[in-house]
């Protein structure tokens, strides 16, 4: 994709945030707060583009987009500054302090002192690197350029090498100290590098964050086993025609992810989770767990796993990666972790990736997994899912009664007034409704008012898309809307490499059933509003059924008028087979896979707008 920005003057930014996800069950107060942060951060982020550009000029060995993807995976382009309480070991003090939009570490385990190293490379002071966004970006670029040069992989002209050649430099950019470079440490470093490259492969286009999509050959960077552990999406696979399978690996045709037939160590307690054992655990003194504690890491996934591996430190039972909901278990549920002080004996802890002062970390994938994991534990340990906090989200300690079984870190007693996670951006209504089963008819799935929601991928993210180039975009728009203040604008740009007509699979929730809401077949109607000025556009929807994916019959989109298109889930005549499907929705519940845009090839870009993707039962 190609983006243009207006440069604005830079001011020191310490506490702003990026919104994410639209969802009907989310409480309106959280939606409003996220929307406010969204508007503010969109303006702020415009200044970063010039800063990134300056860093590339100074360090031309860094491939385009890498700095932006690093910042996105560490902070969502939202500068971090540790609080005084954090620095003295109080609020979230168990996590290493990091600084700035690039989240550079100052030497607290498990990280090396990236700030001191960057100061030597750039001549900047440590204070400048910590507190000034432009200098912080330049410092991160200097560290990355050093590691690229150490690999001896510059192009013959002295410019940037191919993305696939900088894998080891990306692993190093996590900043783990030498002790962490064990086999588990290598897994953690792979996880971080994969997240960065996956961001580049998919692209990001939301709330002022602009990262162009670039095809990445993941198999040139990681072993097949590592890719299977990461559930890597081979996004250029045409799953309707091709099947990739070896004696050890295969492609899941629905999620388009690589599956290892002899997988990485898995959790015994919770099947979907990976298992990496923390040394910081022991026997429970009080018998079986009776409570669940919801945390936010005050850090990023790979770094938090490494932190929980430090002997004598802290731990939680589960960690959730925000980008795709990957879960890692580090303490057996029957054992005592170290995450909630005097309450560890009876509680199971779940850590969600991100920083509580930033709204951009509670993705649909995170909500999906924290809800599924909590429900699973409730059933096994007989913890009532209805005994859950439903009050306001706050950034302060807010002690609740011991009888309330499922609540945040900030709601437990004996925390010394120093614990405030998961913070004001976590929707307790959405979480509580999810674990209690209160949401059966979700209504509007994505309104685009607070963010791109489940439609955060670019139009070329799926390998099933043909005819358009990676310059195609999907971004929120205020100029043409059907309801509210925002819609989603899809720009389809022709690919000169093919004469194929456009078939665009615009993914919902990454095209993964686990990333989407459950929709009832009986009486279910699925649809959305759409608008275009281009003649000849037809629309389809695809749903993931129990036996594969089904695609709806196509509906023509009239020009220059907002049109509501809808399909009935229980009408066999409205569905055709695709990717293992049989043309009939057989399951009692399905999930939305994608919206399809179909049209003949066109030399000029085509714009399509969608609004209020919705489901109802009638």
Kindly describe this structure.
With 618 residues, this protein is an alpha+beta fold. It has three domains: 28-209, Lysozyme (Orthogonal Bundle), CATH 1.10.530; 274-436, Lysozyme-like (3-Layer(aba) Sandwich); 443-617, Jelly Rolls, CATH 2.60.120.260. The protein contains twelve helices and 27 strands. The protein has helices at 28-58, 66-75, 84-87, 114-122, 126-131, 133-151, 167-172, 183-202, 224-229, 301-307, 364-381, 428-436, and strands at 98-99, 104-105, 204-206, 209-211, 249-252, 257-260, 274-275, 282-283, 291-296, 318-320, 327-329, 335-336, 347-352, 406-408, 443-446, 473-477, 487-492, 502-507, 518-520, 524-532, 538-545, 548-552, 555-556, 563-568, 575-578, 589-599, 606-617. Strands 18, 19, 21, 22, 23, 25 and 26 form a seven-stranded antiparallel β-sheet that branches. The protein has a six-stranded mixed β-sheet with strand order 7-11-10-13-9-14, with helices on both faces. A hairpin with a 2-residue loop joins strand 3 and strand 4 (209-211). Helix 1 crosses helix 6 and helix 8 (183-202) runs antiparallel to helix 10 (301-307). It is globular and about 65 Å long. The two termini are 41 Å apart. Mean pLDDT is 84; it is low at 1-26 and 233-247.
């Amino acid at each position: 994709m190609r983006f243009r920005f207006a440069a604005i003057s830079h001011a020191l930014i310490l506490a702003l945030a990026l919104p994410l996800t639209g969802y009907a069950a989310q409480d309106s107060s959280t939606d409003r707060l996220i929307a406010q942060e969204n508007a503010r951060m969109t303006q702020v982020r415009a200044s970063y583009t010039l800063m990134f550009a300056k860093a590339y000029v100074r360090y031309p060995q860094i491939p385009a987009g890498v700095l932006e993807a690093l910042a996105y995976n560490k902070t969502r382009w939202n500068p971090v500054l540790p609080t005084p309480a954090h620095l003295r070991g109080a609020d979230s003090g168990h996590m290493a302090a990091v600084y700035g939009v690039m989240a550079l570490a100052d030497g607290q385990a498990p990280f090396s002192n990236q700030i001191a190293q960057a100061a030597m490379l750039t001549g900047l002071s440590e204070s400048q690197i910590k507190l000034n966004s432009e200098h912080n970006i330049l410092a991160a670029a200097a560290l990355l350029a050093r590691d690229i040069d150490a690999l001896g992989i510059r192009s013959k002209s002295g410019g940037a090498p191919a993305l696939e050649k900088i894998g080891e430099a990306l692993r190093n950019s996590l900043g783990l100290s030498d002790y962490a470079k064990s086999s588990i440490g290598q897994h953690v470093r792979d996880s971080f590098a994969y997240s960065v490259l996956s961001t580049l492969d998919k692209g990001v286009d939301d709330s002022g964050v602009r990262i162009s999509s670039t095809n990445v050959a993941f198999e040139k960077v990681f072993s097949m086993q590592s890719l299977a552990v990461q559930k890597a999406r081979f996004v250029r696979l045409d799953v309707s025609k091709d099947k990739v399978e070896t004696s050890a690996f295969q492609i899941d045709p629905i999620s388009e992810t690589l599956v290892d037939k002899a997988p990485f160590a898995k959790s015994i307690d919770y099947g979907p989770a990976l298992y990496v054992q923390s040394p910081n655990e022991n026997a429970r003194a009080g018998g079986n767990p009776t409570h669940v504690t919801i945390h936010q890491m005050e850090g990023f996934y790979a770094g938090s796993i490494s932190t929980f591996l430090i002997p004598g430190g802290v731990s939680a039972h589960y960690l959730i990666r925000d980008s795709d909901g990957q879960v890692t278990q580090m303490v057996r549920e029957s054992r005592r972790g170290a995450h909630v002080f005097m309450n560890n004996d009876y509680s199971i802890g779940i850590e969600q990736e991100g920083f509580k002062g930033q709204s951009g970390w509670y993705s649909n994938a995170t909500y999906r997994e924290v809800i599924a994991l909590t429900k699973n534990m409730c059933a096994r340990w007989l913890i009532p899912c209805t005994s859950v906090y439903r009050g306001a989200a706050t950034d302060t300690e807010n002690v609740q009664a011991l009888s309330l079984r499922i609540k945040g870190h900030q709601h437990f007693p004996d925390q010394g007034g120093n614990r405030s996670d998961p913070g004001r951006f976590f929707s307790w209504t959405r979480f509580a409704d999810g674990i209690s089963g209160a949401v059966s008819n979700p209504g509007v799935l994505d309104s685009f008012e607070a963010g791109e929601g489940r439609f955060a991928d670019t139009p070329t993210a799926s390998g099933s898309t043909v005819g358009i180039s990676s310059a195609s975009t999907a971004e929120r728009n205020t100029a043409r809307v059907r309801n509210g203040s925002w819609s989603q604008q899809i720009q389809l740009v022709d690919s000169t490499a093919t004469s194929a007509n456009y078939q665009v699979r615009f993914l919902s929730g990454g095209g993964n059933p686990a990333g989407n809401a459950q929709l009832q077949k009986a009486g279910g109607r699925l649809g959305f509003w759409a608008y275009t000025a281009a003649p000849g556009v037809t629309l389809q929807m695809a749903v993931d059924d129990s036996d594969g994916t089904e695609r709806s019959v196509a509906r023509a989109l009239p020009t220059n008028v907002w049109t509501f298109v809808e399909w009935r889930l229980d009408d066999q005549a409205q569905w055709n087979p695709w990717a293992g499907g049989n043309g009939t929705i057989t399951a009692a519940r399905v999930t939305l896979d994608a919206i399809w845009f179909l049209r003949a090839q066109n030399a000029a870009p085509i714009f399509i707008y969608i609004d209020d993707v919705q489901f109802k039962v009638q």
